[in-house]
Amino acid sequence: MAQIPSETQGGSARSAHRVVLAILGGTAAGVVILDQWTKAWALAELRPRIQSGEGPIYLIEPLLRLTYVENTGAAFGMGTGYTWIFTIVAVIVGAVIIRFSRTITSPAWALALGGLLGGLLGNLIDRLTRPPGPGLGYVVDFIGLPNFPVFNVADIAITCSAIGMVLLAWRGVPLAAEPGDDGDDGNPHDDVVDPHGSGT
Question: Are the beta carbons of 97 and 117 closer than 8 angstroms?
Answer without folding.
Answer: yes
